[in-house]
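Researcher: We are triaging several targets before committing to wet-lab work. For this one, the compound of interest is zinc ion. I'm pasting the protein sequence and the ligand SMILES. What I need is the predicted three-dimensional arrangement of the protein with the ligand bound, expressed as structure tokens, so it can go straight into our comparison scripts without reformatting.
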Amino acid sequence: MGNWTRFANHVCQGFNVVPRPVYVDEGDVSRPLWVYFALRDIHPGEEITISYSSEHDPVPRDFGYSVQEWKDAANKARAEAPRGHRCYCGKALCRGTMFNAPPGEAFWEKSDGRRGG
Ligand SMILES: [Zn+2]
């Protein structure tokens, strides 16, 4: 069964909804009601997309990468990630993995992660 979110797919770039925890008659902060807010108008029939890894589109230059260096690092991250974490969203700036790495472990956070290092 599940709910509508099983039809929402992860993409690394250009996602159209973001989740926010909301509490309604709930005093336990570990039990939020997750509400999804649209970032822009979503047209009938358009796929609902969310990012599991970031709330911002990737901007390679912000991390000192060229676009090609980013793609190379994403391909390396994808190859090294557990199979269920690999991303194949097909976006130009795919991160290679769907989920957050531990803090400081994502390739775009490591100074030695550039150029496949
Ligand atoms: Zn991706």
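Researcher: Any quick observations?
Model: DSSP finds one helix and four strands in the chain.
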